[in-house]
Write a structure and sequence with these properties.
Layout (H helix, E strand, L loop, with lengths): L1 H24 L8 H24 L8 H26 L1
Helix pairs in contact: 1-2, 1-3
Amino acid sequence: MIYGRFCFYQFFLFSILFVININFDKYISKPFTRVDLIAICISVPVLIILFIVVSKLYSRFEVISLRNKIFISIPIFIISTLFIGFLEQLYF
């Protein structure tokens, strides 16, 4: 059961990171302008809050060894990438 919950949390985390990256990637470009600064100022607090929440959620997964976490996270990362790519084709 703990492995299933870990997989769900990983999938949710990777999906949120991809969505944040897709949304803010449009605004942050090479010649930095005021719009880029505003996008960075919005995205950094969102990422900080996300990492604080994730660190509190992942404290219960200390019983899973690091090797198992890595082996679980690799396929979940690929599945999350495919899922967000599929959703991007449908809605964006």
